[in-house]
Amino acid sequence: xxxxxxxxxxxxxxxxxxxxxxxxxxxxxxxxxxxxxxxxxxxxxxxxxxxxxxxxxxxxxxxxxxxxxxxxxxxxxxxxxxxxxxxxxxxxxxxxxxxxxxxxxxxxxxxxxxxxxxxxxxxxxxxxxxxxxxxxxxxxxxxxxxxxxxxxxxxxxxxxxxxxxxxxxxxxxxxxxxxxxxxxxxxxxxxxxxxxxxxxxxxxxxxxxxxxxxxxxxxxxxxxxxxxxxxxxxxxxxxxxxxxxxxxxxxxxxxxxxxxxxxxxxxxxxxxxxxxxxxxxxxxxxx
Length: 287
Hints:
36% of the residues lie in helices and 15% in strands. By secondary structure, it is α/β, with parallel strands linked by helices.
């Protein structure tokens, strides 16, 4: 099938390379990864220019081989015990008030990395009790004990991306499970209703509007608070092709429908990613 031509609304503008290098130097000195770089995010220049980044912890090698992702797949290295302290140091140097931390999936670890997430959260809270901490976590195999470890560290937001409509799970993210992902979001709310939950999905992979609306309904039934919807863009290493470049007007339609369903904050546009401009939802945490 011939490739679809990229539309004008997906053109990336110019970037300030000096500001980008400044952020990269801070990260390299502290031996930190970012999902911005590892997943080749199209928003990297905008984020680094603002001195923001989404930290990718537990290494740069994932134990799952999802078709939409450009992060390396293989056998990960042992956890870096200094990483939580390095995250705090980078947070200081970048002047972050809203910190987003995600990870590769670590199915090789007994707790999937839950305790590592918790340690990072606790050290950030010791550094600044008012900082907003957002964790974007893998499914932890649905283990409620491991989910509880993360919840009890009391981040402000726990994000777990649903990624795609259920019909496409086997094709796009074959080692994940739709019901397990929904259950994780539901369990977080049951364990601590004060934590805001968040999820995101990609479009442009062959789904239709009704399937997206059904997914939004499923997410809302878990009491999910925050939603992100963005265009799937094919990484260089992937053979998962783009089926459609979804028009910005359709993203607006999804946004309107999500607000109608009761989501508290929605970001829906072609370049939206789960952690891009995450601080825009901070008003939900005020008071």
